[in-house]
């Protein structure tokens, strides 16, 4: 039963990929949905047994790699965080498969789409159940591969090619850092098994590695490189540029990979490796600041975006920032709780966006929509639920986790904690503003902004799409309330040894008894954002251009250009790399230095020497006599100065061939030979 979530997606993937045409579209749909339902039911069983009945286990399938100390087995770890993530990922994946039946049914490559989708699900399960860091890395690379295939699904579109390559290349930086962390972990612990690594962390807390004669704690290095890997996969500030562009893939892909599951793999890595992070306080501070800045950055950029899916994508980036800085504050359970909650309401938002795009003939510009609330009432109601959960409306799913993270940040009473709190609170205001801006522009404007022909064909989503949306809406309303006490309540023992805290780092108790009036600050900021959005897009809608000029056109352009990150990378990194590669690496080193001392230089040198030697053989006897005399004179001079004899044994000569005497003897011998002949 424990291995069902791994074997069922593999069976579905192989059968769909190899026999899809023979099975036909209906056969493929039946096979995939059946496998995903069975997978979900098996994860429910695992969740009940591991999280409710407190039974963790490791399933080993034998040796994988064995070479001296390097002994890696196929081990699958089922503890509380694994079981919970398996439940959520299988549930979201089932709904996305169900949604895709109607959304992608007219696509001629529908079978290939389901093949890629199932492949991603399999690799995600490998990542979640990995019992060693190397097996985790295998799943990590697998979801990256599946992400590339799904973003580039419509490969005839140039922008899809560019976006897929961008996602792949940017993630290489994070993957390379992960690989270094993996090597450092094996160098230190002589093992990559999670239980071995975590058991030995405390023993290596004071062990240092000397770099340029400066000691650096080995756990600090490992934690730093693991975090850089998480920055790439979870689209944090600096390596975030791939996430908005990844919206070129089909909308179900955005819901499954870039909102609910794959981008949370970096968060899951930090939670899984909490034993490393807790012994690296400087890295924790860096994680907190990075997460807070990411939340604020993405919220500011989301204010001015016009693409429907990119607005939600920047919202994802901002919410990931909350999860990251919660990990930096050593409250991994709050981060994990927000990760689970986020999966429900963000998948709902993306799938609602897909329903809108499906209804308005693939239009994604919110400026060309408007007035859709009357013609798409079901989609509007469901998207309103997802938006209110996102902004933290009281008693919806997002309210419980996001407010808990902000409370924890405040009661940490440290500089980084307060930094994260205020940037996170500002992000709450901005999130509420642009989320309701999206609703105003899409549903609430009195006059439609699109083409008349588009509105004549607007229709509600088909039955399977609506079913998936309704189920996610219930999760966005009820999940946080039902599971709060299970995940982050006082005295929670669901995590046991899956999450490690250093004594004194856990501040949930202080947050629970924080002043009630201060707890309302994030809620006040959220309502302020909603009211501001209402004022700007209703009361002052006719004066929007004047408001933009008043706010500062330069600031508006700065935000619309996404803080110029893409331009900086293109001009400073990409173009300079091209210049260096062409003018330095290619022309100066490859075609210059290497050719000079390599093939071209050798050929030219031999040709030059051959021409000189040919000129010596003129056939005139006086030139030969002159060369013989010159050689004898040089030999006599060398005998007096360096005391070597012409008749020396060759082994000793070859042993000293690099000496000055050997070089002179060789030159004189060549002159003698040239003179004699």
How would you describe the overall organization of this protein?
This protein has 677 residues and is mainly alpha-helical. The protein has three domains: 4-560, no CATH class; 561-597; 605-676, no CATH class. Helix content is 73%, strand content 4%. It has 29 helices and four strands. A two-stranded antiparallel ribbon has the order 1-2. A two-stranded antiparallel ribbon has the order 3-4. A hairpin with a 2-residue loop joins strand 3 (208-211) and strand 4 (214-217). Helix 15 runs antiparallel to helix 17. The longest helix is centred in the N-terminal third of the chain and has 49 residues, at 4-52. The N and C termini lie far apart (89 Å).
Distance between the termini: 89 Å
Number of contiguous helices: 29
Mean pLDDT: 84
Subunit arrangement of the protein:
single chain
Helix and strand arrangement:
Blueprint: H1 4-52, E1 57-67, E2 70-78, H2 80-103, H3 110-129, H4 133-151, H5 158-189, H6 194-200, E3 208-211, E4 214-217, H7 218-233, H8 242-245, H9 251-260, H10 265-272, H11 274-277, H12 281-302, H13 308-328, H14 332-359, H15 377-390, H16 397-411, H17 415-444, H18 452-456, H19 463-487, H20 508-512, H21 516-519, H22 521-539, H23 544-551, H24 553-560, H25 565-597, H26 599-616, H27 621-642, H28 650-655, H29 660-676
Antiparallel strand pairs: 1-2, 3-4
Spell out the key features of this protein.
677 residues, mainly alpha, 3 domains, two-stranded antiparallel sheet, two-stranded antiparallel ribbon, 29 helices, 4% strand, globular
């Amino acid at each position: 039963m424990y291995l069902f979530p791994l074997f069922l997606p593999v069976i579905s993937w192989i059968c769909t990929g190899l026999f899809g045409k023979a099975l036909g579209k209906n056969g493929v749909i039946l096979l995939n949905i059946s496998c995903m339902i069975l997978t979900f039911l098996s994860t429910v069983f695992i969740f009940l047994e591991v999280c409710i009945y407190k039974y963790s286990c490791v399933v080993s399938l034998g040796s994988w790699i064995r070479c001296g100390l390097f002994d890696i087995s196929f081990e699958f770890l089922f503890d509380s965080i694994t079981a919970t993530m398996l439940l959520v990922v299988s549930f979201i994946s089932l709904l996305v498969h169900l949604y895709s039946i109607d959304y992608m049914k007219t696509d001629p490559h529908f079978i290939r789409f389901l093949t890629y989708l199932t492949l991603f699900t399999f690799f995600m399960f490998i990542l979640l159940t990995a019992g060693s860091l190397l097996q985790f890395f295998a799943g990590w690379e697998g979801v990256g591969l599946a992400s590339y295939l799904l973003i580039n699904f419509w490969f005839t579109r140039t922008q899809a090619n560019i976006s897929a390559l961008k996602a792949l290349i940017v993630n290489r930086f994070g993957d390379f850092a992960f690989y270094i962390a993996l090597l450092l972990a094996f160098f230190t612990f002589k093992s990559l098994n999670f239980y071995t690594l975590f058991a030995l962390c405390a023993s290596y807390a004071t062990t240092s590695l000397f770099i340029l004669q400066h000691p650096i704690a080995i756990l600090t290095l490992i934690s730093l490189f693991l975090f850089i890997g998480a920055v790439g996969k979870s689209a944090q500030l600096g390596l975030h540029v791939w996430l908005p562009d990844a919206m070129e893939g089909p909308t179900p892909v955005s819901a499954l990979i870039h909102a609910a599951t794959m981008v949370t793999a970096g968060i899951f890595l930090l939670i899984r490796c909490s034993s490393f992070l807790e012994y690296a306080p400087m890295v924790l501070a860096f994680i907190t600041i990075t997460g807070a800045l990411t939340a604020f950055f993405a919220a500011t950029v989301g204010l001015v975006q016009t693409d429907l899916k990119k607005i939600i994508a920047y919202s994802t980036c901002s919410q990931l920032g909350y999860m990251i800085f919660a990990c930096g504050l050593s409250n991994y359970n709050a981060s994990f709780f927000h990760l689970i909650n986020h999966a429900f309401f963000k998948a709902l938002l993306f799938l609602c966006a897909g329903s809108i795009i499906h209804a308005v003939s693939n239009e994604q510009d919110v400026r060309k929509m408007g007035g859709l609330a009357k013609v798409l009432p079901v989609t509007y109601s469901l998207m309103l639920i997802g938006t209110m959960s996102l902004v933290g409306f009281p008693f919806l799913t997002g309210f419980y986790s996001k407010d808990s993270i902000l409370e924890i940040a405040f009661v940490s009473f440290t500089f980084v904690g307060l930094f994260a709190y205020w940037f996170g609170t500002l992000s709450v205001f901005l999130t509420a503003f642009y989320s309701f801006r999206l609703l105003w522009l899409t549903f609430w404007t009195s006059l439609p902004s699109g083409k008349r022909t588009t509105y004549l064909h607007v229709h509600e989503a088909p039955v399977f799409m609506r079913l998936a949306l309704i189920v996610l809406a219930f999760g966005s309303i009820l999940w946080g309330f039902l599971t709060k006490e299970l995940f982050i309540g006082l005295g929670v023992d669901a995590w046991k040894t899956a999450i490690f805290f250093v004594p004194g780092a856990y501040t949930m108790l202080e947050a629970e008894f924080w002043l009630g009036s201060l707890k309302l600050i994030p809620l006040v900021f959220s309502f302020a954002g909603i009211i501001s959005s209402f004022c700007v897009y209703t009361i002052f809608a006719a004066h929007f251009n004047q408001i933009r000029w008043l706010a500062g056109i330069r600031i508006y352009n700065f935000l619309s250009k996404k803080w110029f990150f893409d331009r900086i990378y293109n001009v400073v990194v990409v173009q300079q790399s091209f210049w260096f590669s062409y003018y330095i690496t290619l022309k100066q080193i490859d075609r210059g230095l290497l050719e000079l001392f390599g093939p071209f230089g050798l050929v030219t040198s031999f040709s030059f020497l051959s021409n000189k030697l040919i000129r010596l053989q003129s056939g005139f006897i006086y030139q030969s006599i002159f060369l013989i005399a010159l050689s004898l004179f040089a030999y006599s001079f060398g005998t007096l100065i360096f005391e070597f004899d012409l008749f020396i044994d060759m082994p000793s000569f070859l042993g000293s061939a690099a000496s000055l005497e050997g070089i002179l003897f060789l030159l004189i011998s060549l002159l003698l030979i040239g003179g004699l002949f």
